[in-house]
Every structure is written in C-alpha cells, then in structure tokens.
Amino acid sequence: MPSLDFIKILPQPPFEQEVLTDACWALSYLSDGTNDKIQAVIEAGVCLRLVELLLHPSPSVLIPALRTAGNIVTGDDMQTQAVIAADIIGPLVRLLQTAEFDIKKEAAWELLNATSGSNPNQIKEWYNNYFEFKGSALMDAP
C-alpha cells in the first residue's frame, strides 16, 4: 500500500470547510476495507485529529469523521485501541446527547461496532471511560 503521509496534513484552521469535508471523506474511503488499509490510516497519525473533528459543528464534517473512526473500530483489537487511546468516548457521548438524529445514529453505530468485536478488557475500558466522562460532564454542569 502506498504511503499515506499526506494525511498528516489534515486541514487545520483556517481552512475552507469544503476542503476539510473532502479530506474526511477521503479518509473514510481509505479506511473502509481490510485491516491493512485501516492500519495504514492509523500509522498516518490521524486518530487524535479525528477525535477533534467529532467536535466540529458541521454535519458535513462530522459524518465522514464518524465513518472513518467507525471503520477503524471494525479492525482488530489494536486498531480499536488506537481510537480508545485518542479519547474518543467523550465526543461520542456528547454527540449521542446533543446531535441531530442522523449524527446520533452514526455515533451509536460506531459504539456498537467498537464493543461488538472487542475483547472484554476493551469493553470494560469503553464502559469505564463512558462513566468517567459522564461524571465529569455532571460536575461541569451549571
């Protein structure tokens, strides 16, 4: 598989939203498939930026970012661990609580895929991180 070093330059602000949307869709297509493809995307170093993009206000960015992260969690346990390590739980929970229905559906699909094939330790980590996030969200409430 060719090098994906170009992905490291995922647009950072300031940028045109259309460029960011297109970059996210490209990542989604690149990560859709075999574990080798997923691994190449992970090795390009995009997991942290993907998690940041899950906080983006535009559905045109959120949907392909969610699809990309969802593709990653369909990989093996180490690949799923890459998005867990990028602290994806908080943004997913926030989306489930506040987003429009189509975004909630994508976030729920990702959580389902992440936990359905994971080893028991990863499921426990998802669970613990969820309640850790929920507890901190309650503490931050006015």
Automatic annotation (TrEMBL):
Record flagged with keyword Protein transport: yes
One Pfam family, short name: Arm
Stated name of the protein: Uncharacterized protein
Family the entry assigns: Belongs to the importin alpha family.
Keyword flag Ligase: no
GO biological process: protein transport
Record key words, sorted: Protein transport, Transport
